[in-house]
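Input record, target 12 of the design panel.
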């Protein structure tokens, strides 16, 4: 790939359109060396790898907005002219394949060449050069963070008040979306970070949090009786709520208090261990609205598949995450979820790690006698040896995965002109769970992002929809989209007056993504013992699955080492320059002067010195 993160990546608008085109064409790569088989010895065999990603299916993109021509429009800040192509009825702009997506460059490159992305409240009609501004990511009025948590930089970008009334949203043309395409950072996978989840703890412990900024999810929403409403979560929210009666407020607080320490009161749930959480809630003398809020917006679990204990655990996790960084349990990384893998890549690079883009691998080379993998051969015909090999599931061929049964994730990404629940403040990050119409069907998780998250242009919202697949993504998610949004299609023109209150969808894409999480290693055929398989994203809202998997693989390779240890303080790092200084001052017995190391040597040797010093 020519971008970081695989299926965890984020794209600008033009970058996403290029990704759509690539996945619709599904052409096999022919850029390979024909003589690579000559590198295989007699006592070796090969495990061929996929040349094309097959984890994305049923990609469909649509433009519902005022569709003026974008033929001669260039993305602001982009040098090459952008060609136009059709994508399932949508006119799109493909990015130059030789140019990396702006949000996927390094932090330095972004600061130098992509500064327009950081202007949250710039008029879309103005030129980029005249409006480059730096967003102040300080959270106004947010709770103070203790010293142990201060390593996590919680940013909250506040945009200027809207100049357009709520009743008359600003008309967004398709050419504007293309022109402002670099202000979009569109995630392939939609997730939030639990404030006391494994990923937040890992970001703080490893100090990788220095490379990222975060914004609070500001609202938890519910969809009930055809309407979107806000769910009170914290004690203050509950007692300030106007939608709950005083009796309901007492009921809710009593139940939430019980959930925090439910294990201390086993007599209250023991009889319902074999029941679903929904059935248990009906026995707690809760009103139907409270049951709905708890089940779908707080515990966020299935009505039919979740046991009582699992529901209580999910509710407690939600409550324990409240208040650490704000009045909801969730954080969202500025510039998108795709920033997270890049943050770890940056930390890795500081200590000599190398990340290669546009560098495909032909096969794994396996020793017939030992059964261990010895090397890989890349598309240049170069043989690269190593002791351990970590392979993402999508690289494994069908012969290796013939016994593997995959799940699928249905995804939709929308660009809209208004929020699903309009309030005085336009800068809201909201999470909404839409329950299924029919029992047994999955609920749909909706995450709505405002422009201050640096994921969309001003006067628009970026909406992610996710659920486990039962059909194609469009078949799974379009009914939910029609409930929440106005699509401006011919079929909806008859009911246009009823749709005025709904946000308008300007552009949308649907696709199915493979969920390879939870696959047992034994399901893969003939894998050498030193080859480790990691999965792509799962359908859960948080990131616990990925963190657990990374730590498990690391501990299998290096059982005596600490996973993602805190980096040393700068003053504790021993550099090669220190050795040279020692020699010059007469502390060394060697009269020879060492040659200045190359950058690669400096990086490698600096890392070794750090490890040795840490052990001491």
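The sequence produced for target 12 reads:
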């Amino acid at each position: 790939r020519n971008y970081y993160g695989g299926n965890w990546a984020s794209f600008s608008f033009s970058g996403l359109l290029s990704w759509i085109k690539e996945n619709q064409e599904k052409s096999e790569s022919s850029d390979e060396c024909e003589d690579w088989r000559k590198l295989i010895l007699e006592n070796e065999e090969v495990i061929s790898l996929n040349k094309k990603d097959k984890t994305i299916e049923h990609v469909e993109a649509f433009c519902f907005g005022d569709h003026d021509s974008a033929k001669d429009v260039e993305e602001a800040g982009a040098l090459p002219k952008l060609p136009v192509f059709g994508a399932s009825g949508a006119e799109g702009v493909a990015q130059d394949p030789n140019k990396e997506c702006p949000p996927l460059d390094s932090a330095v490159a972004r600061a130098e060449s992509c500064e327009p992305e950081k202007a949250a409240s710039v008029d879309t009609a103005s030129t980029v050069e005249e409006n480059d501004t730096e967003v102040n990511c300080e959270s106004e009025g947010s709770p103070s963070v203790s010293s142990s948590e201060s390593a996590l930089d919680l940013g909250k970008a506040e945009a200027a008040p809207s100049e357009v009334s709520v009743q008359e949203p600003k008309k967004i043309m398709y050419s504007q979306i293309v022109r402002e395409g670099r202000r979009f950072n569109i995630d392939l996978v939609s997730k939030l970070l639990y404030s006391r989840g494994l990923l937040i703890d890992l970001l703080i412990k490893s100090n990788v949090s220095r490379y990222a900024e975060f914004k609070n999810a500001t609202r938890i929403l519910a969809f009930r009786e055809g309407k979107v409403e806000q769910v009170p979560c914290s004690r203050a929210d509950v007692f300030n709520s106007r939608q709950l009666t005083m009796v309901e407020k007492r009921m809710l607080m009593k139940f939430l208090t019980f959930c925090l320490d439910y294990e201390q009161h086993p007599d209250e749930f023991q009889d319902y261990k074999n029941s679903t959480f929904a059935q248990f809630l009906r026995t707690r003398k809760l009103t139907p609205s409270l049951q709905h809020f708890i089940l779908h917006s707080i515990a966020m679990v299935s009505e039919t598949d979740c046991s009582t204990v699992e529901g209580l655990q999910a509710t407690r996790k939600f409550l324990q995450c409240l208040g650490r960084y704000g009045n909801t349990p969730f954080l969202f990384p500025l510039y998108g979820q795709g920033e997270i893998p890049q943050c770890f890549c940056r930390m890795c690079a500081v200590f000599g790690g190398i990340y290669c883009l546009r560098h495909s691998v032909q096969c794994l080379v396996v020793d017939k006698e030992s059964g261990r993998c010895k090397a890989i051969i890349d598309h240049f015909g170069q043989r690269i040896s190593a002791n351990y090999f970590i392979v993402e599931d999508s690289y494994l061929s069908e012969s290796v995965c013939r016994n593997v049964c995959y799940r699928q994730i249905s995804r939709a990404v929308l660009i809209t002109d208004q929020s699903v629940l309009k309030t005085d403040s336009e800068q809201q990050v909201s999470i909404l769970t839409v329950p299924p119409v029919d029992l047994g069907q999955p609920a749909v998780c909706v995450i709505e992002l405002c422009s201050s998250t640096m994921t969309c242009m001003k006067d628009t919202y970026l909406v992610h929809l996710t659920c486990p697949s039962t059909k194609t993504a469009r078949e799974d998610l379009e009914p939910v989209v029609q409930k929440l949004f106005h699509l401006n299609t011919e079929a909806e023109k008859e009911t246009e007056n009823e749709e005025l209150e709904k946000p308008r969808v300007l552009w949308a894409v649907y696709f199915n993504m493979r969920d390879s999480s939870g696959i047992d290693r034994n399901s893969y055929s003939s894998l050498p013992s030193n080859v480790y398989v990691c999965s792509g994203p799962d359908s859960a809202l948080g990131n616990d699955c990925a963190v657990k998997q990374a730590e498990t693989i690391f501990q299998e390779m290096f059982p005596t080492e600490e996973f993602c240890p805190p980096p040393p303080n700068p003053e504790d790092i021993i550099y090669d320059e220190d050795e040279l200084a020692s020699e010059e001052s007469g502390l060394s017995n060697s009269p020879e002067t060492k040659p200045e190391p190359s950058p690669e040597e400096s990086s490698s040797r600096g890392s070794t010195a750090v490890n040795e010093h840490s052990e001491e």
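The two ends are 41 Å apart (CA to CA).
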